[in-house]
Amino acid sequence: MAKPSAPSRERILVGAADMISRRGLKATSIRELAKHAKAPLGSTYHFFPEGKQQLATEAVRYAGGAVTRILRRELEEGPVAGVRAFLTLWRGIVVNSDFRAGCPVLAVSVEEPPDDGIPPALVAAAEAFEDWERLLAEALTAHGADPDRAPGLAALIVASVEGAIAMCRAKRGMEPLDQIARQLETLIADALGHPA
Fold it and tell me: Residue 174: which of 165, 161, 183 has the closest Cα?
């Protein structure tokens, strides 16, 4: 029977996603990922026998899936509610980390891939972005947006939020996120045919 204090696979994934969101993938070793998750290196290799790439890929999938679940739940109230929840989630992560953490999906996305192919963590990042965009486009369409316009608006929302997160970290302030929040709500209201 495992000790109650034994690190769980989920705890390692959460810790790895957090570390990647702070430093990026290339600047982080599996030993540092394990240490940040407060897990012995042996436990990390037990759960992720293929090493750093497997852990990073699964951490990005885990983080992307967590955001997908929040978006799916909040979008039931409509696109504006979903976008507000998306913004609130990232605001909390950035502020609570004192501007040290951002989005692990973005962190993996902006690193140069190796010459020998596309790493699985990058594929996982693309899948996360696609999921978020799909959910937003579906909600926009369900609430009256033009089905031809909804995918572009969804991509704009995701790209704006991700870019604003990076800007907030650089500027050590939340003004970029606040500015895009107002603009996105106006764009959504326009797409749904509601006055802003």
Answer: 165
